[in-house]
């Protein structure tokens, strides 16, 4: 009981009060530490265990796997005399969280047997490491082998990859597969379908998916609102929000979607009203992401002094994305005065080393927009002197089951 609710202090008191402790007691305490993220305490307990079994080793392995500590996970993995599916799956997770997908695939290929969790763990690792085309390839391999059928999580992961790639063709194919296998009743699949169609530009499709769904949780509503925000349907998003309030309680993600919708639609007053009502009316405390949305809303509308005031007074250290949004607005509205204030905060917070190619180019463009050519050239020279290379643009097309990426200026691709 204590372990399940992660009250490790109480669990440890009970554990210490036990006159005799069997392996189950040791493992329960170990699991409590790992589940609550107290890996240092777990390791100390692990070292003092009079006897370790497969369950003990798998607990420690999963703890290291969740942290992406591949070396420690490998040491525990090698200590297991007879590995079960949990052992192998945890090792794939460890490699994925560490970012070594070559090793993750090697472990996957060496497995004497696999279950759906094995496939989903590798798929999730590819997704988390932004190897989206590999997600799609692995999904089709799993489907075509037809040994272990994809489940709702498999489909959700594959759809997320399609969304990030903007691959509508593959997204539709996976949607058809989900319909054939009756997996669309899962809210996870529904939410992923809405997200995929929205990011691929299919307004009609994501609306159909939403309104055909039998049950709509907050994640489903948020996906719909985010889709409307992407396409600038702010007025519709606000109407959908009113409909949502009759059925579901909004959360912090709801307001990120709504503020983005207002920002992309120029609904400044409505966006400010929403932001100010979050805590009062809905008991949702604004996070830095909400402040970022508000700054973007005001910046796009040209309310640059107001946007700067929000940054100056917000209870968070401004991140580069927020400062970059306001700096971009200063470029668009040719406001060097506010722009220079933002640059000053950037340099104070991150220094020259903290600036990337986009930051340098934005500052240079700020001065160029106001015909301050000397300063524009100086910032371009600073970027060149720092050794930073401007990131090339990226495009992609689908050929077969693979999505091929192209860097701008690269003419070496065999199909081009």
TrEMBL record:
Q: Which UniProt keywords apply?
A: Repeat
A single BP term in Gene Ontology: RNA modification
Task: From the record, give the transmembrane residue ranges.
Answer: none
Question: Please, which domain of life does this record's source organism belong to?
Answer: Eukaryota
| Classification via PROSITE patterns | PPR (PS51375)
Q: Does the keyword Flavoprotein apply?
A: no
Each PPR repeat, start to end: 22-56, 84-118, 217-247
Q: InterPro entries annotated for this entry?
A: E_motif, PPR_At4g14850-like_plant, PPR_rpt, TPR-like_helical_dom_sf
| GO MF entries | RNA binding
Looking up NCBIfam families in the UniProt record yields:
PPR (TIGR00756)
Q: What is this protein called?
A: Pentatricopeptide repeat-containing protein
């Amino acid at each position: 009981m204590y372990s399940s609710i992660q009250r490790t202090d109480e669990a440890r008191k009970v554990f210490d009060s036990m006159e005799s402790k069997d392996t189950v007691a040791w493992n329960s305490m170990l699991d409590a530490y790992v589940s609550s993220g107290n890996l240092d305490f777990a390791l100390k307990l692990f070292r003092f265990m009079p006897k370790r079994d497969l369950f003990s080793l798998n607990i420690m392995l999963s703890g290291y796997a969740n942290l992406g500590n591949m070396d420690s996970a490998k040491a525990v993995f090698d200590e297991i005399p007879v590995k079960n599916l949990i052992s192998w799956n945890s090792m794939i997770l460890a490699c994925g969280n560490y970012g070594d997908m070559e090793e993750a695939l090697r472990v996957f290929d060496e497995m004497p047997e696999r279950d759906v969790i094995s496939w989903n763990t590798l798929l999730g690792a590819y997704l988390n490491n932004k190897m989206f085309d590999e997600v799609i390839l692995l999904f089709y391999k799993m489907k075509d082998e037809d040994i272990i059928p994809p489940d709702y999580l498999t489909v959700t992961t594959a759809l997320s990859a399609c969304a990030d790639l903007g691959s509508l063709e593959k997204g539709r194919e996976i949607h058809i597969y989900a319909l054939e296998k009756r997996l669309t009743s899962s809210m996870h699949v529904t939410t992923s379908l809405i997200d995929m169609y929205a990011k691929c530009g299919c307004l009609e499709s994501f609306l159909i998916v939403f309104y055909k769904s039998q049950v709509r949780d907050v994640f489903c509503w948020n996906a719909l609102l985010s889709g409307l925000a992407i396409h600038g349907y702010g007025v519709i998003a606000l109407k959908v929000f009113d409909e949502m309030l009759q059925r579901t309680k909004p959360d912090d993600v709801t307001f990120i979607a709504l503020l983005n919708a207002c920002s992309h639609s120029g609904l400044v007053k409505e966006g400010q009203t929403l932001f100010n009502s979050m805590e009062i009316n809905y008991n949702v405390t604004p996070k830095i992401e909400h402040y970022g949305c508000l700054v973007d809303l005001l910046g796009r509308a040209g309310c640059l002094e107001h946007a700067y005031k929000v940054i100056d007074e917000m209870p968070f250290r401004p991140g580069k994305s927020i400062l970059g949004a306001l700096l971009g607005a200063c470029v668009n509205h040719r406001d060097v005065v506010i722009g220079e204030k933002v640059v000053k905060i950037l340099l104070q917070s991150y220094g020259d080393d903290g600036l990337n190619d986009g930051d340098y180019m934005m500052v240079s463009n700020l001065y160029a927009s106001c015909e301050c050519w000397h300063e524009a050239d100086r910032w371009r020279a600073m970027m060149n002197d720092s050794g930073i290379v401007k990131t090339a643009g990226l495009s992609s097309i689908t050929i077969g089951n693979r999505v091929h990426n192209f860097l701008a200026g690269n003419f070496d691709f065999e199909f081009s």
